[in-house]
Amino acid sequence: MAVYTDVSDEELEAFIASYAIGGLTSFKGIAEGVENSNYLVHTETGRYILTLYEKRVARQDLPYFLALMEHLAARGITCPLPVRDREGRTLKELAGRPAALITFLEGLWVRRPGIGHCSGLGEALARFHVDGADFPMHRANSLSLPGWAALFASIGSGADNVTPGLAREIDKELLHLEQHWPADLPQGVIHADLFPDNVFFLGDKLSGLIDFYFACNDKLAYDVAVCLNAWCFEPDGSFNVTKARALLQAYESVRPLSPAELEWLPTLARGAALRFLLTRTYDLLNTDANALVKAKDPNEYLRKLRFHQRVKSYRDYGLGEH
Amino acid sequence: MAVYTDVSDEELEAFIASYAIGGLTSFKGIAEGVENSNYLVHTETGRYILTLYEKRVARQDLPYFLALMEHLAARGITCPLPVRDREGRTLKELAGRPAALITFLEGLWVRRPGIGHCSGLGEALARFHVDGADFPMHRANSLSLPGWAALFASIGSGADNVTPGLAREIDKELLHLEQHWPADLPQGVIHADLFPDNVFFLGDKLSGLIDFYFACNDKLAYDVAVCLNAWCFEPDGSFNVTKARALLQAYESVRPLSPAELEWLPTLARGAALRFLLTRTYDLLNTDANALVKAKDPNEYLRKLRFHQRVKSYRDYGLGEH
């Protein structure tokens, strides 16, 4: 969770009254979501999440994220739906911050996903890619190759304070990826952060996707690579090839990967691992001692990166010959 | 909010299955409550708060708190009701900690209470005192005079790091209260922490009381004094005698204060101010830089203490001659 913005009684009341959702009956800060302040809102007519966007989310990107949720929901993807106020607006302001009210989604995120969860995730990811194909807006991925290089430049040798030798290892990997990064893979809207805490299940059934605040236009297979990293490693660092196979086969049941996407998958997985290694390293080095957010361990992603460096082909991810 | 205890999928599922409340549909950490970890739980049959008791709440006191909630709810006080599991237990264990599931209470706490809120609070406090009269269990107030002296002994001259001269000022006040503390006022179950964030309203109507984890047996009028401190000062430090009058008159409409209680009210208010001055000073000096809890300002209660030191009689709190 992020630092909580203090909302006064009067501001909150006026904000809720600007929607046709009845009177407020409950308002509680919730402890999920690292980038923004989130509140659970009950009114006489329903349950909602109120998000106040803190500084790490660029205000000019918010219309993209909110319109994407509306686009996906209209195509049957279960995701939060931004609520329109009495004047039809979804992006508003509260307590001096950009703010939006979205519908509450039932479901639980799975702390330790099993094979069935990976399968559900793979299918949902592919549907997201297919349904996002005609989304008309565009947002560049600020956390792709050039963004990684810029982030590393701002970290520099500080990385060695996280793990000795880390700066050199990142430098080498960046150089490798700059020389070996695919150019012509199928592009579209990607979620870019589809970690287990952004995927809800009811029992074994996937019930929805949340947190679209890293969504952007990029290579679709890169999104698959992010998920391989986030869903298919065990707590001891080992790669669970059965989970990866389940994820990829379910993905391909909806959207088959092209031969080029398969060929580049190990490289994309290295890039995805490097992306989270870099942001976690940056966050760890820049976390204010008073911050409410607990920094995540960068070394988890260093181990994942090293795994993908040793991978020879997509077949190492559990897929048979295509 | 407190540090969050990590609950595994399996533990949580088994815990919820031990109650007859249907399957789990949502589980979110909430950011309220300083002492414990609280989660909002939705199941197929209702909404609940799951509390994991962290170290500051003594395990042996939990049966008192839970039984008190059941006692009060049975007498019509709107407060969370501990849910009994299939074996009739309210106090359980989860993730190695004492845990309880209580019903979810609709309502909002008021960031800046008005006169009407103070009136509602006064009436509810008196009903709490009346309805608690036949509660059979007993718990001493660990944060009364002897507790304050012990707390001050552990703080010592460190108080001067909060405000220069504070240690001497606390020392003098403690000495005064030890020599002038009432012995024979009416006793009973008190809430002892009925701050605005523990009182819910729906519109202007009080809808419930929460957070009974400081409740104990002590002088009833001390509870009134806690509320005078917590509800009747403005953000600029001034005392709002209109709010105090509203609180006290509403209290007396249910339970009139005795002449002795009225006579001792300024002293009890000094004690209540000292209690929060001491705990806030202790918390500020002992807050780990990594703690998720933001320490509250002790000086707010130093100013309140000084106000009560200048009070000559209960009439200064807005009550007419009795």
What does this structure look like?
2 copies of one chain form a homodimer. With 322 residues, chain A is an alpha+beta fold. Chain A folds into 2 domains: 9-104, 2-Layer Sandwich (Phosphorylase Kinase, domain 1), CATH 3.30.200; 109-317, Alpha-Beta Complex (Aminoglycoside 3'-phosphotransferase, Chain: A, domain 2), CATH 3.90.1200. Helix content of chain A is 41%, strand content 15%. Chain A is built from 9 helices and 10 strands. Chain A has helices at residues 9-17, 62-74, 115-131, 145-155, 166-179, 220-231, 241-254, 259-286, 298-310; strands at residues 24-30, 37-43, 47-52, 92-94, 97-103, 108-109, 187-190, 199-202, 205-209, 216-219. In chain A, strands 1-2-3-5-4 form a 5-stranded antiparallel β-sheet, covered by helices on one side. In chain A, strands 6-8-9 form a 3-stranded antiparallel β-sheet, covered by helices on one side. In chain A, helix 3 (115-131) packs parallel to helix 7 (241-254). The radius of gyration of chain A is 20 Å and the shape is globular. The model of chain A has no long low-confidence stretch (mean pLDDT 93). Chains A and B meet through strand 1 of A and strand 1 of B.
| Whole-number mean pLDDT of chain A | 93
Assign the CATH superfamily of the largest domain in chain A.
Aminoglycoside phosphotransferase (APH), C-terminal lobe
Which outline of chain A best applies?
globular
CATH hierarchy class name of the largest domain in chain A: Alpha Beta
**Number of contiguous helices of chain A:** 9
Widest sheet of chain A: strand order? 1-2-3-5-4
Helix content of chain A: 40-55%
Instruction: Give me the secondary-structure category of chain A.
Output: alpha+beta
Oligomeric description of these chains: homodimer
User: How much of the residues of chain A is beta strand, in percent?
Assistant: 15-25%
CATH architecture of the largest domain in chain A: Alpha-Beta Complex
How many domains comprise the coordinates of chain A?
2
Give, in order, the helices and strands of chain A.
Answer: HEEEHEEEHHHEEEEHHHH
Biggest sheet layout of chain A: 5 strands, antiparallel
